[in-house]
Amino acid sequence: MPTETLSATLPGALESLVMAVLKEACERRLRLVTAESCTGGLLASTLTDVEGCAHAFERGFVTYSDAAKSEMLGVPLAIIDQWGAVSRQVACAMAQGALSASQGDIALAVTGFAGRGAPGDEPGLVHFALARRNRRIIHREEHFGDIGRGPVRLACLRVGLELLRSSIA
After folding, report:
1. Cβ distance 160 to 110 under 8 Å?
2. Structure confidence by residue, pLDDT tens digits, 123-154
3. Sequence-ordered list of residues with C-beta below 8 angstroms from that of 35, at least 6 positions apart, any chain
4. How far apart are CA 163 and CA 128, in angstroms?
5. Which residues have CB under 8 Å from 65's CB, separation 6+?
6. Is the pTM of this model over 0.90?
7. CB 61 within 8 A of CB 98
């Protein structure tokens, strides 16, 4: 069954990947959590868009601001101040915080620059972190380039789903 709301706009390969992630999570009775910044909830929206698979998604956090990352996920402001909101350290803290603040089994975090940030920021720089109970955190850094907010978000969706799928398998 395809995604319901996003089917008309989601590339076929991404839709297939969503279906594979949700099918495998359902089969293994794993609950997924997202902690999103630059994607603004796109991952959560996509993972809740397939009828009959809702039980695989536990919750999502959209933490666009530094304050939200700190308040909702427990990311210490000192880490954000030291490393910047778009960093390996913050992505890993977001993933661990999402796992701790939920009943999920796997948490995926994403933080980055979907478009142009402040002067000196790299457009398309995105950090992903995946935390799974009783396992080490996995980090992935991507440089999508200055391709625009929408294309960066879709690229983030692909990478995030790939990370989830490899963690579930």
Report:
1. yes
2. 999 999 999 999 999 999 999 999 999 999 99
3. 60, 61, 63, 73, 94, 95, 97, 98, 107, 108, 109, 110
4. 9
5. none
6. yes
7. yes
